[in-house]
Amino acid sequence: MSASRVHCRRTALTLWTLLALFSLRVAGQALVVFAGVSWLPPLDQWQSGILPYPLLLISQLAILALFVKVCADVSRTHGYFASPRPWFRRGALWFGYAYFAGMLVRYALHMQFHPQARWIGGTIPIVFHCVLACFIIVFASSHRARHAGCPAPRS
Q1: How far apart are CA 12 and CA 131, in angstroms?
Q2: Using CA atoms, how far apart are residues 7 and 13, in angstroms rounded to an integer?
Q3: In whole angstroms, how far apart are CA 87 and each of 52, 67, 79, 96, 122?
Q4: Rounded distance, CA 151 to CA 5, Å?
Q5: Are 136 and 19 in contact (CB under 8 A)?
Q6: What does each C-alpha distance from 22 to 66, 111, 154 come to in angstroms?
Q7: Which is it for the CA torsion 4, 5, 10, 14, positive or negative?
């Protein structure tokens, strides 16, 4: 197997793993809201409160749908998100880095203003925003690295 094919498979596996992590977050919060499970953290730990839960859930489902399409295209090595787009790769990579850095700042501020939460209290949203940022970084990096494209799958 060629090095580029191994790289493409590794990228696809990484993206699917990050998608699975985010899916668990969405499912966990839904279990707390709709099923009232007590073995998961309470609702106030799952979201910052900026968006009401119904809007948050809709946006999370939209992100999941988009990321499934990205993962499927990258796995198949063809499709809209597997096609090289030079104008896209730089912007997406910088956005991913800025998004991740923003979450690090958010974490530092959270710890500064909520010392009783040390080290992980109230961080579920921050951690999963980092997961989303990592998804964007991995996707953009692989997109950037394969500007010549991953090899097409054999028929």
Answers
A1: 15
A2: 10
A3: 34, 20, 17, 15, 37
A4: 6
A5: no
A6: 12, 23, 31
A7: positive
Name the pLDDT band for 143 (thresholds 50, 70, 90): confident
Q: 3 is written with which tokens?
A: 């090095």
For 134, residues 6+ apart whose C-beta sits below 8 A from its C-beta are 18, 96, 100
Q: How far is CA 14 from CA 34, 74, 89, 155, in A?
A: 30, 11, 18, 24
Radius of gyration over alpha carbons of the chain, in Å? 18
User: Which residue matches tokens 């209290």?
Assistant: 121
**What are 86's two structure tokens?**
């030079």
pLDDT at res. 26: 97
> Longest C-alpha distance within the chain, in Å?
58
Q: What is the mean pLDDT of residues 3-24?
A: 91
The residue whose two tokens read 């990592």 is 134
- pTM of the complete model: 0.88
- Tell me the C-alpha distance between 154 and 147, whole Å: 20
CA distance 7 to 141: 11
Can you tell me the distance from the alpha carbon of 68 to that of 48, in angstroms, rounded to the nearest whole number? Answer: 25
